[in-house]
Each structure stands twice: as structure tokens, then as C-alpha cells.
Amino acid sequence: MGMDPDAVAKAFVDHYYSTFDANRSGLANLYQDNSMLTFEGQKIQGSQNIVAKLTSLPFQQCQHSVSTVDCQPSGPSGGVLVFVSGNLQLAGEQHALKFSQMFHLMPTPQGSFYVLNDIFRLNYA
Amino acid sequence: MGMDPDAVAKAFVDHYYSTFDANRSGLANLYQDNSMLTFEGQKIQGSQNIVAKLTSLPFQQCQHSVSTVDCQPSGPSGGVLVFVSGNLQLAGEQHALKFSQMFHLMPTPQGSFYVLNDIFRLNYA
Lengths: 125, 125
Fold this sequence. Notes:
Two copies of one chain form a homodimer.
Chain A: H1 5-22, E1 31-39, E2 42-45, H2 47-55, E3 62-73, E4 80-90, E5 97-107, E6 113-122
Parallel strand pairs in A: 1-6
Antiparallel strand pairs in A: 1-2, 3-4, 4-5, 5-6
């Protein structure tokens, strides 16, 4: 049974940002050893290193507000590309930051998905 | 021989935006029949339909200025993910628009790459 890419993307985005905002270390099981993150140009590989980066960002509380979610199937491997734009409000800051982020989700043998590729950029609006 | 994803991404981005700004119909040979474009939420498939969309955008002259290019290999298929942010200046408009765009480039049997996935969003800064 194929899964609807739009449904996969929506469920992933809801789960990812609510987990990020509540408990960043809970993102670990969304990544695997071959996962890649490029965060503001810095390249990081592997679930452990990626979560270490995300949990060490210089802010404690934050709130993502998603503006747009676009998705496409990435090819015969069953992957899904997810492209997100939104606002990131940091605790104690007056103005939200705009961000764009893309994920390449790959199916697992268990019928779930993990993040193979993750690229994040602030737009400094 | 593997190709360096950063070199592929840089060469592609230079070629794509210079072609877009000079002669949009010249983009046709970068797409194939299975190529997908999501343009501000509108889904379009196939080289012919994609170029028809791009050439019918409601502006004649534009100039892309690329701010950031990030890339990652997309998996064992030899694909390259390219994530771009930048400014789009339309002729006659005072302010440039910010944009984000992602491409999934796939290798061709001829040793080149084509665009399998393309997602474009304006950030309305």
C-alpha cells in the first residue's frame, strides 16, 4: 500500500515541530546514522551528532509556526521531500525569525519514515 | 567516478538562474517528463508544462541574486539535493522579493543531471 505523500508530510511536520518546541532530545529517533543536517551552512551527520547540535542551540524555549508545507515523492525509493516555511519565535525576543527547511523522508522497514536529509536556513527577514 | 555534490550544486545553480533570467524557455532541457514543480503551492508535472508555467509568470524581466546554496547527496541513486535562498528583483519593482527553492537533481545516463523535484516559495519579506 502506498502512502499519500501529503499525509506523510503533514503528520511529520506536526510531530517534528511540536517535539522540537517541547523536548528537542526527543527528535533523536527521527534520524539515523546516515542522516545529514545542514544547519545554517554547518554540516552534521548522524542522529547523535544532529541531536547534540539541536539541543545546544543558544536558546531554551522556542515556538515554530508553520506557514507553508509542500511535498513531492522523491523517486522510486519511496522517499518524500518536504519543504517548510514559517516563523520561529525565540523566548524573550520581540520579533519572530523567518525560516525555511527541507526534509527528505525515507521509509523504514517498519513502515515508518526517518529523516535522511535536513537543511535549515533562517531568512533574516 | 563520483561527482562532488557541492560542485554539482554550484554549477547547476549558476546555470539555472542565469538561464531563467536571460531566456526562461531554455530551462526545458533541465526537466524531463517525470519532473515535478511545486510553484507557490501549485503542482505541475513534466518538462513541457513546467516551462509553460515559468514562461507565463506575470513579469518579463527578473534578476535572481543567490544568497545561500546548501547541498547534500540524496541517497544511493546518486541524486543531489540543492537548497537555495536569495532575492528576486522584478523589473519596475522597488523592492526585491525573498525566495527559497529546493531542487532534487538526478543523474542522467549521459553523465549530466536533470531536475526531478523543484519546489519554489516566496517568503514575502
